[in-house]
């Protein structure tokens, strides 16, 4: 007689795999800012389920809330975003470059601006002078 090594031949208490469609429905029911890790920590999905190809999660990485982005954004960028002239992605890109310049040390900032100014065309120089004048008068009244 041959020995059977299967200790659970009827298959009681075995895990039934969920399909990708079922998992995607679960993902869509939850908030869009949840990451794969959030689903794992709350024990809604397993690691293997979150790593399946073809699933679309609403959030990738650490996104700052818009209130913090507005702190380092220019007034014009904020107005453009609110009137839907630019997308959220563009606003975040502008925020990132402006924040980089805002946090740059003064000596590096001066060197950076001199390098940019050296490469401007005549038409760009005229526009820059006009912007500088408007900025000066706008801040002079404050």
Produce a short descriptive summary.
57% of the residues lie in helices and 0% in strands. By secondary structure, the protein is an all-alpha fold.
Description:
With 142 residues, this protein is mostly helical. It folds into two domains: 45 residues, no CATH class; 75 residues, no CATH class. The chain is 57% helix and 0% strand. The chain starts with 19 loop residues before the first helix and ends with a helix.
Task: Report the count of strand segments.
Answer: 0
Strand-residue proportion: under 5%
Class of secondary structure makeup: mainly alpha
Instruction: Return the domain count.
Output: 2
**Alpha-carbon distance between the termini?**
97 Å
- On the 0-100 scale, what is the average pLDDT? 88
Fraction of residues in H or I helices: 55-70%
Element-level helix/strand string: HHHHHHHH
Radius of gyration: 27 Å
Shape, principal axes of CA atoms: elongated
Largest sheet: none
Low-confidence runs:
none
* Count of alpha/pi helices: 8
Keyphrases for this structure?
mainly alpha, 2 domains, about 140 residues
List the topology elements.
Layout: H1 20-29, H2 36-41, H3 47-50, H4 66-71, H5 75-82, H6 88-102, H7 106-118, H8 122-140
């Amino acid at each position: 007689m041959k020995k059977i090594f299967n200790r659970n031949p009827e298959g009681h208490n075995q895990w039934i795999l969920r399909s990708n469609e079922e998992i995607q429905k679960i993902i869509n029911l939850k908030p869009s800012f949840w990451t794969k890790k959030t689903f794992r920590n709350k024990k809604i999905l397993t690691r293997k389920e979150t790593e399946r190809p073809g699933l679309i999660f609403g959030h990738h990485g650490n996104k700052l809330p818009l209130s913090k982005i507005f702190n380092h954004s220019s007034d014009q960028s904020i107005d453009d975003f609110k009137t839907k002239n630019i997308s959220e992605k563009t606003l975040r890109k502008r925020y990132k470059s402006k924040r980089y310049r805002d946090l740059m040390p003064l000596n590096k900032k001066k060197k950076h601006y001199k390098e940019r100014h050296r490469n401007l065309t005549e038409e760009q120089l005229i526009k820059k002078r006009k912007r500088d004048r408007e900025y000066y008068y706008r801040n002079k009244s404050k």
